[in-house]
Design a protein that fits this description.
The complex is a heterodimer of chains A (about 450) and B (about 160).
Chain A lengths: L2 H18 L5 H5 L2 E2 L19 E2 L9 E2 L3 E7 L5 E6 L5 E5 L10 H12 L9 E6 L8 E6 L7 E5 L2 E5 L3 E6 L12 E5 L12 E4 L5 E6 L18 E6 L5 E6 L4 E6 L6 E5 L11 E7 L10 E2 L3 E2 L8 H4 L7 E5 L3 E6 L13 E6 L12 E8 L2 E2 L4 E5 L2 E2 L2 E2 L3 E6 L5 E5 L4 E7 L4
Parallel strand pairs in A: 2-29
Antiparallel strand pairs in A: 1-22, 3-27, 4-32, 5-6, 6-7, 7-8, 9-10, 10-11, 11-12, 13-14, 14-15, 15-16, 17-18, 18-19, 19-22, 20-21, 23-24, 24-25, 25-26, 25-27, 28-29, 30-31, 31-32
Chain B lengths: L3 H12 L10 H6 L1 H20 L2 H31 L1 H5 L3 H22 L10 H20 L18
Classes of the chains: A mainly beta (about 450), B mainly alpha (about 160).
Chain lengths: ~450, ~160
């Protein structure tokens, strides 16, 4: 009587074990950099592969390790979940300390996934403020002030003239700023609402101003992994929105970008580039996250397809008309590395020669593949405004033993040409400069 | 009056023995309704999702499956107690088959809850929908197997009043 039952139980156990053991293949990972990543067939899982590294912390004096010719120092420590960093023209550095709004429970899965991701540090409280750091100079000691407080899960910052823009998770705000200010007390003016709650799944709103300052670009991530919250929840999402700075009018600049973050202007071509987090739960080696140039009016596939015409069967109804238009992204960074930070090397002097032309990418790190990927800052070399060559590991060592001491997020170049890294789990902003430089 | 042969049979059965089959065990009988309602509901909402691709139906299904599995676990505990405690229940016709069919339905529903926890269309179509349908068929079968069969239970005489 028990035999069929045992067989069924064994089958179920085997299926679960199989799912749990579906490791990301290191050889495959290496084949997923660049213009033509190897894309395995999509899989469906009972239990998708997962490996979450427990969040730790840096001990006094510890730091991530940098590539040869570079050194890492802490610009600021003891922060509350720093996600983004923005240098001001006078040398002051703004640090955005923030985390996402509380996610609602829609399905039993949400109850289970919350604690799993929290184990990796994603639930740590953000301060919802911006801290200003004025580095020590000319004998004056280093200065820290609370620059702007009481924000709502802020992420992007952009300064245009005397207007400082802050992208909250649900609104784009403008504040008056004068060079040398260490604190803003003005209430601020809302330029426009941004797609917000109640779900706000990908909540980080990145911000970039056009060269002439007339437009602001806002990165708005999707409201789901792959439309499981319905298409109505995806209005204006998975887009880069263009906001007219004078009128607040909004138009879609580019679409189909699942979670676009840290848009930047490429210095040679003056084109917009962005890093994008691709979809989960169809395999440890799918879908590679990417770095791409963004065309005005371009559609990049989400949710219907990835890397051009690779159709995602989880989306119904499908849109072959849109899939036919989907642009293949320029440069794959590897699956689930979670790129959130992007900054182009400004070529100003101090970086080693091999890190002067190209883009630094901050990879927050994976939760849904084993072994893990990301958890580092890489450099993608460029030639003539296009990626050229394999990514170079620039800052590593965020994982030590069983813990992630830190996780890199937003990046910036400071006025001296050093790279700044917001480390949200490590509650630190790191400064990476040439070993010989001050 | 009953013949001596019948009386012998009766004594055993009467000692702890309702003649109405598994339905006579009130705790088990009450709890086992919940997964039945939930899993039939999940099949209906799965069909609604399959026809409409409206995500809200998939959300209904996964909550119904989750609630059904939790209540089925309680029903399984009550069923196990009944099975161990009452010798006559084990001897009811088809009782063993009822147990096996019910457990298979529960195991498939747990698998189905994992399938329904996928994101998007493949949470339901085709595997989730198929599992929901199979589970409903198995539950109907289990109910039929555990249904009271008065004609197959020997007539009993009340030990004190003699009433039949």
């Amino acid at each position: 009587m028990n035999t069929p039952l045992l067989k069924l139980g064994a089958l179920a156990a085997a299926a679960l074990a199989l799912a749990a053991c579906d490791h990301g293949d290191p050889a495959r990972q290496a084949a997923q950099y660049g213009a033509a990543p190897m894309l395995p067939a999509a899989k469906n899982y009972l239990l998708p592969p997962m490996k979450v590294i427990e969040a730790g912390s840096w001990k006094q004096g510890e730091a991530p390790s940098a590539a040869a010719g570079l050194k890492v120092t802490a610009l600021a420590t003891g922060l509350m979940h720093p996600r983004f960093v923005y240098p001001l023209p006078n040398g002051d550095v703004l640090i955005v300390e923030s985390n996402g709004p509380k996610a609602p429970v829609f399905r039993p899965k949400d109850i289970i996934m919350g604690p799993i991701k929290a184990y990796g540090g994603s639930a740590a409280k953000g301060a919802n403020r911006i801290t200003l750091v004025r580095p020590a100079s000319n004998g004056a000691p280093e200065q820290h002030t609370v620059f702007l407080d009481g924000l709502t899960s802020p992420f992007g910052v952009a300064l245009v003239g005397n207007d400082l823009y802050v992208a909250n998770a649900d609104s784009l705000m403008r504040y008056p700023y004068n060079p040398g200010d260490t604190k803003i007390t003005a209430a601020g003016t809302k330029l426009v609402d941004l797609p917000g709650g109640p779900i706000n799944h990908h909540w980080t709103k990145s911000l970039l101003a056009s060269a002439d300052g007339s437009k602001l670009y806002v990165g708005v991530g999707s409201n789901s992994n792959i439309t499981e919250n319905g298409m109505a929840a995806e209005k204006d999402r998975a887009n880069i929105l263009e906001v007219d700075r004078a009128s607040g009018a909004v138009r879609t600049f580019a679409s189909g970008l699942r979670n676009p973050n840290s848009m930047q202007w490429e210095p040679q071509s003056k084109a917009m580039w962005v890093v994008v987090n691709e979809r989960d739960e169809i395999g440890p080696d799918l879908v590679p996250d990417y770095l791409t140039s963004v065309k005005d009016g371009g559609f990049y596939g989400w949710p219907y397809s990835y890397y051009g015409a690779h159709i995602d069967p989880r989306v119904m109804p499908q849109r072959p008309d849109l899939v036919a238009k989907a642009i293949v992204p320029d440069y794959a960074l590897g699956s689930h590395v979670a790129p959130l930070g992007l900054v182009f090397s400004n070529g100003a002097g101090t970086m080693p020669a091999n890190l002067r032309e190209g883009a630094f990418v901050g990879e927050h790190g994976s939760w849904d593949r084993s072994p893990v990927s990301g958890y580092k800052v890489v450099f993608v070399p460029f030639r003539g405004g296009k990626p050229a060559g394999q990514p170079i590991d620039v800052v590593t060592g965020f994982i030590a033993g069983e813990h992630a001491k830190g996780r890199p997020v937003g990046l910036a170049m400071d006025s001296s040409g050093a790279l700044l890294i917001a480390d949200d789990v490590g509650n630190t902003v790191w400064r990476v400069s040439a070993a010989a430089a001050p | 009056m009953a013949s001596p042969a019948v009386t012998t049979t009766t004594t055993n059965v009467v000692a702890d023995a309702p003649r109405l089959g598994l339905a006579s065990q009130p705790v088990y009988a009450a709890l086992v309704q919940f997964p039945a309602v939930c899993f039939i509901g999940a099949l209906i909402t799965d069909i609604a999702y399959w026809r409409s691709a409206m995500f809200i139906w998939e959300t209904f299904s996964i909550w119904l499956l989750t609630a059904g599995c939790i209540m089925a676990a309680f029903a399984a505990i009550a069923g196990l107690v009944t099975w161990v405690r009452y010798h006559h229940v084990r001897r009811l016709p088809f009782a063993g088959l009822h147990v096996v069919t019910s457990i298979v339905a529960l195991v498939l529903s747990i698998v189905n809850a994992f399938v329904h926890s996928r994101d998007g269309y493949t949470a339901v179509v085709p595997t989730g929908l198929a599992l929901s349908a199979i589970v409903v068929v198995l539950m109907l079968l289990a109910t039929w197997l555990g249904w009271p069969r008065t004609r197959t239970v020997p007539a009993v005489t009340h030990p004190h009043t003699g009433a039949r």
